[in-house]
Amino acid sequence: MCDESNSAIGAVLGQKEGKASHVIYYSSKTLDNAQDNYFTTEKELLAIVFALEKFRQYLLGKKVIVYSDHVALEYLMTKKDAKPKLILLVHDFDLEIKDKSGVENLVANHLSCFHVGGSSFPILDKLLDDRLFYISNTIPWYATIVNFLVTKEIPYTFTKYQKAKLKSDSKYYVWDDPYLWKHCPGQLI
User: Fold this and answer.
1) Per the confidence metrics, is the pTM higher than 0.70?
2) Which pLDDT does position 20 carry in this prediction?
3) Helix, coil or strand: residue 3
4) Which residues in the chain show pLDDT less than 50?
5) Which of 87, 120, 123, 126 has the fewest CB atoms within 10 Å distance of its CB?
6) pLDDT tens readout for residues 154-166
């Protein structure tokens, strides 16, 4: 369940067993200055995104039903120019939005009206930097040590000196998948 008010958003993570709903987690957040300027429908979408990000580890890969008191969210999900970053975050989930009036959605409604003091973190409305998706082609310095410890094979391109150095250096390392540990003086790892 998600809801918004003029200054805050609220969400409830719940689970249905039969006809009964069981609450797992309550969450709310005060909106920052930029988010205060959103239209009501965009604030409702922001509440859904907030809930999906907050409960991401529980919701990914499962059918998610969101109860909201704003019918226009269905339209906003198909509108191409409405907060593209928020729409992109929602599309990671198998999501179904169901209308639930404010009277039936009391807990989320109350959480959204509850003003929480303290700092709020602004949502950046720009997409991620392309540099974050850059893949490095350089091989890390420890790759040959790990390969030697796992396979006991030395690359055929190594010189006699490099082979001796690899054997000498690898004595101080232990490979415990996925970690490479180094023995230091006093057998500290």
Assistant:
1) no
2) 80
3) strand
4) 108
5) 126
6) 989 999 999 999 9
Token readout for 34 is: 């930029």
Q: What is the pLDDT of residues 58-99, one digit of tens each?
A: 888 888 888 776 666 666 666 666 666 666 777 777 878 777
Residue where the block lists tokens 């689970």: 15
| Interstrand relation of 63-68 and 94-99 (parallel, antiparallel or unpaired) | parallel
Residues with Cβ within 8 Å of residue 97, at least 6 apart in sequence: 48, 65, 66, 68, 73, 74, 77
DSSP 127-174: PPPGGGG----PPPTTHHHHHHHHH----TT--HHHHHHHHHHHTTEE
Residues contacting residue 70 through CB under 8 Å, at least 6 positions apart: 40, 41, 44, 99
Half-sphere exposure of 7 (CA within 13 A, CB side): 5
Query: Tokens standing for 161?
Result: 């000196």
Q: What residue type is 25 in one-letter code?
A: Y
Place of tokens 């996925």: 178
Over the Cα atoms of the chain, what is R_g? 26
